[in-house]
Structures are given as structure tokens and as C-alpha cells.
Design a protein that fits this description.
Blueprint lengths: L3 H31 L12 H9 L9 H12 L21 H13 L10 H17 L8 E5 L2 H16 L8 E6 L4 H9 L7 E4 L9 H13 L3 E8 L11 H10 L3 E5 L24 E5 L11 E5 L3 H7 L30 H11 L1 H24 L3 E8 L2 E6 L6 H18 L6 E4 L2 E7 L7 H22 L1
Parallel strand pairs: 2-3, 2-4, 4-5, 5-6
Antiparallel strand pairs: 1-7, 6-7, 8-9, 9-11, 10-11
Helix pairs in contact: 1-3, 4-11, 6-7, 6-10, 12-14, 13-14
Bound molecules: pyridoxal-5'-phosphate.
The site of pyridoxal-5'-phosphate (PLP) has 15 residues, from helix 6.
Length: about 475
């Protein structure tokens, strides 16, 4: 028989022990984070650690929970890539706000259900207010602004495509629908379209110009060609900060095309929408007010822990049309005055992700976050300025959204050898543990990509990183000749 009393006592003891242990872990994390600049970027797990975990079984009788906690911190968390490190320049990674961590811990402790508004009305109100506020940053207005917090840009982009499809196509036209975006668009858009049932040939990739922005002339040409061929163009996706180069598509012109052909206009702002907070740089996003929807990952530039992304729509009826179901078991908990998030997106049970962002915005204020955005632009420009003084280095993409691509074109090396060299430089700097820079490929050229959006990255970090890159490049170029 289940001994409830014994179980209850062990849970009570568990709370007492864990509060103490979690406090110690938090202290340990804060101390570590304070000296993160001195740490290697990746303290990889040893073979013994991996073997130990591999050999572990799920026990029939529980173990000492304190021991389990220690094990998780020492073996698991301490051996993950430090992507919040100030010299981690890959992906789209920033430092994490302590307020996001606090908000996240509180959300986990209280664990409110974020599916229905009435289950946690004040938390629901916070999500509603944030959605409205984020939409307003883009120039959306009125009571129709809507949206939903989701796990990431991938889910946000996919959900936007569901709304786009349902608002512009009849079900019997789905097989004829076509979607357009540039060849620099994040893979999640294509993946999302595949998940919701579109074939690869329904996705049209438009070439980009020298700044890696979509070619508007070719975009319109493709749409016209497909209409003439009897297809049904229904959506275009613009980029506000591509992952490769931080490029921003000509959003105003895309908006005009969307209007002309009655297409849904989605903007992938997973990376770049945060520039809306900067009075200096938000004009780079001009045209976003013409969109029907956009995605915004605050777990990228706005220092949130995973996962925190938002899909914003100009008219929330489009989300409600696509995502509302009324099962009998929810009849008593649907809210009449507010929207329930299970009617606005694909998820039902989910954490209240808006809380940690709210915590961060309240505690930090938008001025400081705007300065953080501007600082990222400054740092990427600093990289460019320094590289221009260093012989052999060539800028491949100009700084945009704190991101720059470049490579070392040693004299006398063939294109093929330069590609090999670029790969080697990346591998060597990663091996050094000092900085983390990976390559990407732009028009067939391997390049080194630096995304510098971490608030803790200093000018000195930038100088030292470039110095090390230069040393490695000169040495490795010699080896290749
Ligand atoms: C990161 C990113 C995504 C995917 O977002 P996730 O949060 O990783 O799912 C989509 N688009 C762009 C431009 C991105 O940078």
C-alpha cells in the first residue's frame, strides 16, 4: 500500500534540504559567472563522466536527493558550452539577465498553468500586456494586436505560417499555395512549412543582393510568374536580422508587394526585432508596421533564459481562427473577456514565459536595454575598423545587428585553400578555449562569423580575439602554402 504519510514527510524534508542546496548552487553559479571571462569556453565532460552517466540506471528505490543534485551540477551543468561567455561569438547568444533567471525560477516553483487565462489571471494579464506592448514597438495599434509566447523562433515562424495559410487559402487550394523568402532566410521557416504540409516546390527562394537582402525585383517577378502559371502565392517572409549576416530585408518594399498581391507578410525578427527598443536603430526596421505578423526571440538579444519567444500578429482573429478548439473538458475554464493562449497557438500546457521577460523589463528598464542593443552595433563596427587595419583580412558582410563576416585571404592562396584556411582558423580558435567563432558560407565562400551581442563583451575582448585570430591565420596560411 502507498504510505502517504511517509511520502508526505519525505517531500517536506525534500523541500528543506533543497532550499538549502539550491541556495548553494545559486551562489556557486553567481561566483562562477563573475569570473566567466577567465574561464575556458567549454570544459568538456571527460570520458569517465560520460561513461558514468551511460552506466546509470533508473533505480527502483530513490537515492539521496542531495547527491543527485550535486551530481547534476558537477557532471552535467558544469560541462556544457558557456554560450553566455563574453567571447562566445557564434549563434545568436547573449549574457543572461539575473532577473530572467529569477523570473524563471519563480515560474518553475509556482508552476502556474499558462494555457487558460483564468488559471492565473494576473500572469495572463502580464502576457497580454507584453504582447500588446511588443506589437506597439512595431507600430501595430488598436485592440486587435495579439500574439502568444512560444518556445522559440521556430515555433513562432511555423505558427505564423499556419495563420497565413488559413487566412489566404481555402483548404482545397493548399496544394497550390506558394511562399516566398530570400535565400538567407532561417531554416526554421522552411522546416515549419514542411511540418504543416507544404512541399519543397511550394517554397520559392529569392536571391539576395550584395548586402544579403532580398532582391525585390526578383521577388515580384517570381510572384507574377507563379500567378500566371495558376499557382496561389499566399505569403512572403521578410528578414529582420538574418542569422548569417544580420541583414535586414527592404521591409517597406516587401510590405507594398504583399499589399499589391494580397499576400500575408510575416517578418522573421527572431534575432533582430530587439532593435525596436533602440531609438537610434529602430528605423532600420522601418516597414515592420506593414507586416501581418512577426516573431521576436527575447532569449537571444534580450538576455532571457531558454525558452522565450513571442509571435505577434496585427489582428489576433487570425490566430483564433487557426488555433481555437473547444473540447468538452475545457468548457468550464474558457475565459470570456480574455483570450486563452490555448486558442492562440499550438500549445496547451506551457510555462508562463512572459513572467521572466516582465521581471527583466521592470527591473532593467528599456533605456538600458536600448543601450545594450546600441553597444552591439558599436562592437561589430569596432571589429570592422580593426580588421581594416590588419593586412590580408577581408570583410565579407558589413556589420548589421551586431554581426559581421570576414576571412583571411592570404596572398597566393587559391579560393579552395582560403576555404580550408578559414575552417582551420575557426577550429584553432575554438581549440584555444579563448573564443568561440564558427564559419558560415556566403555565396560559396567560407567566412568567419562574429555575432557580438553579449553585454559583457568588452573592447579588450574584441582586440584580444582579433589578435589571436591574426596569429593563427598567419601561422596556418604558412602551413598551407
Ligand atoms: C534563431 C533564429 C530562429 C530560430 O529560433 P529558435 O528560437 O532557435 O527556435 C529563426 N530565425 C532567425 C532569424 C533566428 O536567428
Amino acid at each position: 500500500m502507498f504510505d502517504w504519510l511517509e511520502f508526505d514527510n519525505s517531500v517536506k524534508q525534500g523541500y528543506e534540504d533543497q532550499v538549502k542546496q539550491l541556495g548553494e548552487f545559486l551562489r556557486r553559479y553567481i561566483d562562477k559567472n563573475a569570473q566567466i571571462r577567465e574561464l575556458s569556453l567549454f570544459d568538456k565532460p571527460s570520458k569517465e563522466t560520460l561513461d558514468k552517466i551511460e552506466a546509470m540506471e533508473i533505480p527502483a528505490k530513490g537515492r539521496n536527493p542531495m547527491e543527485v543534485g550535486e551530481e547534476l551540477v558537477n557532471d552535467v551543468f558544469e560541462h556544457a558550452m558557456l554560450i553566455q561567455h563574453p567571447r562566445f561569438y557564434s549563434f545568436v547568444a547573449s549574457a543572461v539577465s539575473p532577473y530572467s533567471i529569477a523570473g524563471s525560477i519563480l515560474t518553475d516553483i509556482y508552476n502556474p498553468h499558462a494555457g487558460g487565462f483564468e488559471l492565473a489571471p494576473c500572469a495572463g494579464l502580464i502576457e497580454e500586456k507584453l504582447v500588446k506592448w511588443m506589437g506597439q514597438r512595431a507600430g501595430y495599434s488598436g485592440d486587435t494586436i495579439g500574439g502568444v509566447f512560444l518556445s522559440g523562433g521556430s515555433m513562432a515562424n511555423m505558427s505564423a505560417m499556419v495563420a497565413a495559410r488559413d487566412s489566404r487559402l481555402e483548404p482545397e487550394e493548399f496544394f497550390k499555395g506558394t511562399i516566398y523568402f530570400s535565400d538567407q532566410t532561417h531554416s526554421s521557416n522552411e522546416k515549419g512549412l514542411r511540418i504543416i504540409g507544404f512541399r519543397n516546390d511550394q517554397v520559392v527562394k529569392i536571391p539576395t543582393d550584395d548586402d544579403y537582402k532580398v532582391r525585390i525585383d526578383l521577388l515580384e517577378e517570381a510572384i507574377v510568374r507563379d500567378i500566371e502559371a495558376g499557382k496561389k502565392p499566399f505569403a512572403i517572409v521578410g528578414n529582420l536580422g538574418t542569422t548569417n549576416t544580420g541583414s535586414i530585408d527592404p521591409l517597406e518594399e516587401m510590405g507594398a508587394i504583399a499589399k499589391k498581391y494580397n499576400l500575408w507578410f510575416h517578418i522573421d525578427g527572431a534575432f533582430g526585432a530587439s532593435i525596436l527598443l533602440s531609438p537610434i536603430y529602430r528605423n532600420h526596421a522601418k516597414g515592420i508596421e506593414l507586416s501581418d505578423s512577426f516573431s521576436w526571440d527575447t532569449h537571444k538579444w534580450l538576455m532571457q533564459t531558454y525558452s522565450c519567444s513571442t509571435l505577434l500578429v496585427k489582428d489576433k482573429s487570425n490566430l483564433l481562427n487557426s488555433f481555437t478548439e473547444h473540447p468538452e473538458y475545457l468548457a468550464d475554464v474558457n475565459s470570456s473577456e480574455h483570450n486563452d493562449s490555448w486558442d492562440l497557438g499550438p500549445e496547451m500546457s506551457r510555462p508562463h514565459r512572459a513572467i521572466k521577460l516582465w521581471y527583466t523589463l521592470q527591473a532593467t528598464g528599456t533605456d538600458l536595454l536600448a543601450e545594450l542593443i546600441e553597444y552591439s552595433f558599436y562592437n561589430a563596427n569596432l571589429v570592422k575598423k580593426e580588421l581594416e587595419k590588419m593586412p590580408g583580412w577581408k570583410i565579407i558582410s558589413n556589420p548589421s545587428c551586431g554581426t559581421i563576416n570576414f576571412r583571411y585571404e592570404a596572398e597566393g592562396l587559391s579560393e579552395e585553400k582560403i576555404n580550408i584556411l578559414t575552417d582551420t582558423i575557426s577550429k584553432e580558435i575554438i581549440k584555444s578555449g579563448f573564443a568561440y567563432i564558427v564559419t558560415t558560407t556566403l555565396r560559396g565562400m567560407k567566412t568567419l562569423r562574429m555575432c557580438i551581442i553579449n553585454a559583457n563583451t568588452t573592447e579588450e575582448d574584441v582586440y584580444k580575439t582579433l589578435e589571436l585570430l591574426n596569429e593563427i591565420a598567419i601561422r596556418e596560411a604558412k602551413n598551407l602554402r
